[in-house]
Design goal:
Elongation Factor Tu (Ef-tu), domain 3; alpha+beta; Aminopeptidase; 8 helices; six-stranded antiparallel β-sheet
Length: about 325
């Protein structure tokens, strides 16, 4: 399962090399730009359709090493401090093993037990005895990744970086299909720190339409009110109407919905104005690019481990294919072109 390999690959923002190399090994032709975006295309006639997914994942980066050899870090991307304590990580190209540590619970004051430990009070223990020993293995600026391995679990799968290796894996599948229009697969960098790669790649390709493939949160957990449990796990891919970075083109949203309904593909609408995606940068490029977002709802994204649903993944892949198939059949009539 290619998704397994993609999930297991390491690539925080700005350090996407391992993910990029894996994707390169699964496509016949490609090019990269200055920022590191990876672009693969199948040239055709008429429309230029771009599928976009980001390669980077949330993680950490080394900011300092203290005198006792502990590694101090900053966050790369949006991570809740609550999910960091006692997690296994690997550091740098040599994947030095470590554990995120904090003061033992036995030594905490009663009032401290009710507080979340802020990340700048945590540290990574790699088992070295002093700063000099750590500096032989780790340097400031090294990327830090969660040491989570992908696993299939019945109807579901568990792994890190489902946001957005899910999108990358589906684009790779779509690039194996043949269409008469020009299809571009854009694997972007630095989405998690400001949609940076998407700005460059959209300006480069200048597509007629863009579909962003994403991983989003599933909110049907016990600590969320039922009326706010949108999207839900196991009820199909989520179509975005609006998030904090984009109001998706209404005609494109309707096109997605109609395609799903005509093909009996379950889908749901993502809760408006939550999160952000590469579409936020892409839709503002040049004269404006009609952009839409379809995402896999996953529990616990932006953490060391997320859970995805196999049926949701299958239905998302099918919906993307049916959308491209419909663009093919409607040719110039698609989206008023």
């Amino acid at each position: 399962m290619l998704l397994k390999e993609l999930s297991n690959a390491n690539g925080i923002s700005g350090f996407e090399d391992e993910v990029r190399d894996l994707i390169k090994s699964n496509i016949p032709s490609y090019r990269t730009d200055i920022l590191g975006n990876l672009i693969s295309s199948k040239e055709g006639k008429g429309l230029k359709v771009m599928l976009a997914a980001h390669m980077d994942e949330v993680g950490l980066i080394v900011r300092d090493i203290d005198d006792d050899g502990y590694v101090l870090f900053k966050k790369a991307g949006g991570i809740d401090d609550r999910v960091l304590m006692a997690k296994r990580v690997v550091i740098g190209k040599n994947k030095i093993d470590g554990v995120i540590g904090s003061k033992p619970v036995h030594l905490l004051k009663k009032e401290d037990l009710k507080k979340v430990v802020e990340y700048n009070k945590l540290y990574i223990d790699i088992g070295s005895e002093n700063k000099k020993e750590t500096e032989k293995l780790v340097k400031i600026g090294d990327p830090i990744y969660f040491a989570t391995k992908f696993k299939e679990n019945g109807y579901n799968f568990i792994g890190k970086a489902l946001d957005d290796r899910v999108g990358c894996s589906i684009i790779l599948d779509m690039l194996k299909k043949d269409f008469s229009f020009s299809l571009y697969g854009a694997f972007t960098v630095q989405e998690e720190v400001g949609l940076r790669g998407a700005r460059v790649v959209a300006h480069d390709i200048d597509p007629d339409v863009c579909i962003v493939l994403e991983g989003t949160f599933a909110s049907d957990t016990p600590d969320i009110k039922e009326e706010l449990q949108i999207p839900k796990f196991g009820e199909g891919p989520a179509v975005t109407i609006a998030d904090r970075t984009v109001i998706c083109d209404p005609k494109l949203v309707k096109f997605f919905e109609d395609t799903a309904e005509k093909n009996n593909i379950p889908y749901q609408i993502k809760r408006p104005f939550t999160g952000g995606t590469d579409a936020g940068a892409i839709h503002l490029t040049k004269r404006g690019i009609p952009s839409g977002v379809i995402a896999l709802p996953s529990r616990y994204i932006h953490s060391p481990a997320s859970i995805g649903n196999k049926e949701d993944y299958k239905n998302m892949k099918n919906l993307i294919y049916r959308i491209l198939e419909r663009i093919e059949s409607e040719k110039g009539d698609f989206y008023g072109h």
